[in-house]
Amino acid sequence: MTKYELCLVVSAKIEEEERAGVVEKAKALIERFGGVITEVDDWGKRKLAYEIDKSREGYYSFIRFDAEPTAPAEIESRVRIMDHVIRYLIVKQEA
Question: How does residue 22 score in pLDDT terms, banded at 50, 70 and 90?
Fold first, then answer.
């Protein structure tokens, strides 16, 4: 299995419960495609480098996980259409 990290930037315009639900959905997607979550790091509300969808702030979450090399493409295709996700990125971590 390969180590990956998913960075999610969730809209700051939604309630706390909705934001937590978005992160939980992302974690469920990782597990659905055979991934094993090793760490979740919530950075909280941060200022964005530039305005996205008329937002200047977003909530950052980093989810580290182990998965097969085919899993990130499947996860990205589903995170792309999730509500309230402003930006996302999956990167392969070095060993």
Answer: very high
Q: Pick from 55, 23, 17: which is nearest to 37 by CA?
A: 23
Contact (Cβ atoms closer than 8 angstroms) between residue 39 and residue 1: no
Q: What's the average model confidence in pLDDT over 16-38?
A: 93
Cβ contacts of residue 68 below 8 Å, gap of 6+? 1, 2, 33, 34
The 10 Å CB-count burial string (b at 16+, else e) for 39-49 is eeeeeeeeebe
pLDDT score recorded for residue 95? 66
Strand pairing of 36-52 and 2-11? Answer: unpaired
